[in-house]
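Journal club prep — side note

Before the paper discussion, L.F. wants everyone to see what a predicted structure for a comparable chain looks like in token form. Sequence:
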Amino acid sequence: MTYAELCDLLIEHSEREATNQTAFFRDCLLEGRQRENTTATPALGLARVTVDTPIYFSLDDILAKVRAKNVERVGTRQGPMFGDFDRFLMRIESKLNDARYDFLLKPTSRNTSASLSDLLRDFVGLGTKKAAVTKEFRPVPLPGTADITIRNELREVDSRNVIARITGSRHPDEFIIYSAHWDHLGKDPSMQGDQIFNGALDNASGVATMLEVAEAFAKLPEKPERSILFLAVTAEEKGLLGAKYYATNPLYPANRTLAKVFPPPVGTVN
């Protein structure tokens, strides 16, 4: 895992102490990897080591340093980070006691830097041991050739954005946009039954939400103060083409458009 991923796993960024936790954890992680670089057998000897250099580090050593810093005193006074790691330690102890994290926090086979080389080569493609994690690494020519033929077919398709407006009662020249893309991924004639990729979630559900909002606005006894635009854009799946077209060719002045609401896909969990 990268340093950022470890922080996301172990640190609650909304906590007041998160800044101190992040900085001290980084220092401990970097120190552990730098020490492994020189003390591993055989020594790795990398010219530069960062918090994300793929070198084994001891979680136990880091925990010992964190526990010591958490209760550190300067004379009779509490240290500058006294108590800052209470929740951090609680979270990591919880994960250490959770069997689901054993493969990550309690490795049994990949527990030395030497044991990581095959893993890095097989899963990350770093090539020979330690060479690809240094700035001196250069591509290695392989004794092989390949012939590749690609056939590409281009066709032109016309499509439309669709827009509706409810005029504001007090500020008709100011606009709020509700938007959703109405396209999906076309169809597959080789499929049995319904050959259309309907996109019920992405993004028919967003269009349905927009239409419900439009109907609710239309039924209000008093119209909203500002004008409301309902914009169904096309070709989102082809690279936001409909949205880009409206942004560069707005029907109503962009400098009078105050907000844009894009309902996310709805109707699912997780």
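L.F.'s comment for the group: Residues 28 and 62 are 6 Å apart (CA to CA). Keep this in mind when we get to the figures.
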